[in-house]
Every structure is written in C-alpha cells, then in structure tokens.
Amino acid sequence: MATAKPLVAGIVCALFVAVPASAAIGTVADNPTVRINPADQARAVQALLALKDFAQGWKGGETSPDPLTAPKCPGFDPKESDLVVSGHADAAFTYPSGAVSFHQDVQVLHSPAAVHTDFARTITAAFGRCLAYRLSKQKGVSAVRIERIRFPSVGSVSAAYRATLTVRVGKHTVRLADDFVFFGVGRTEYSLNLVAPVQLSGQLGTFEWSMADLLVKRATTAAKPCC
Length: 227
Known about the structure:
Radius of gyration: 17 Å
Mean pLDDT: 85
Helix content: 25-40%
Largest sheet: 8 strands, mixed
C-alpha cells in the first residue's frame, strides 16, 4: 500500500480504538449473554489472524477483547440477550508506513442458527445509521457518510459497510475510509474493521476479501473430520 503523512497515522489510531469491530455484530442492543467455556474460547483464539498472515511491514497480534456491551444508538435496539457468546477473542494490526489499522473480533455463539438470527436482527438500515451516529460523536469528526458496500459472498452470511470520515485535527483536515466487514461460519461470527486514508480506498476491498476468504477456508478445513 502507498505511504501517507505521519499526521494521518495518529488520527487513524485514535479513530480505530473509538469504534472497534466488536461494537457491531453480537454487541448491539441489549447485551448478549456471555458464558465463556474453555473449548469455545480456544476456538475463538484459533480463528484470529496472526502476523504471519500479513505482508512485511505490518505489526500486531492478539489483544484483550473489550467487554461485550451494547452501544447506545437512537432508534436501534435489536434483541441480543437471548444469544449466548461462549468464546470471544480480538486481534489488532497496523501498517505504520501506510497509516492503516486493522482490527478483528471473533465471537463463538451457541449454534449456527444463532449467528443467522443475529445477522437478521442486526443488518438493517438502522445499523448503518447507528455506525454513523457513533462515528459522528468522535472528537474531530466533522462529517460522516456511511454506505453498505458490495462484498463477495463469504461464509454463510455476510455484510460490509464503509464510512467516509472528515476529521479535523488542529489546522489539518483529512479524510478516512473506515470499513466494517461481518460474516459467519458455523457458530462463529467474524468482524473486521479497516481504517485507512481515503486515498487507499480502492485497495481496501481486495485486501479485506483476501483476509475473509483465508479465515473461511481455515474454518472450513478445521470443521472437516480428521479421518
């Protein structure tokens, strides 16, 4: 990816932690029921990307996940408390020379049907407005435009959104692309969040698809009988 000014890197990092991917699928509305068990927690950790999956120049790895609590968004309150999360893991990576940040959240639910239920309740027009509302509340953000974007079918369910942000810091104004990709495989939900200078937006889709495809292939292989 192309390089960007150091100023952008700092802004990207600030926004990246403001709206993590875990604030989307599985954590909107009333809080999900969290009952972590060792087997499913190990499954969640195994579903994380590792630094070896990225090209040279990337940094990062597994991080401590944020608590699964519901963000407050006007007019958006799908039911979640009947969904049980039994495994939860996060990873974060940065590409400093390109001012790019990438966050992954993995949640293991109690059944594949629960994943489909979560998507059906969450992926609505109101969800896009919720993302825009939360981003607009971040310091320095003067404008937000959000749209659901086309994304190749991946897993059993999937959806993708892009927020275009105008951010003011001191005397500088920059525009950022903030992408959210969600998909499910079996009992596992994946959330990917990529933040980058808007000049790189044309490259983001291919990168996101390659990571999602890699994760689905791994999950499919792991689910096959060993003999």
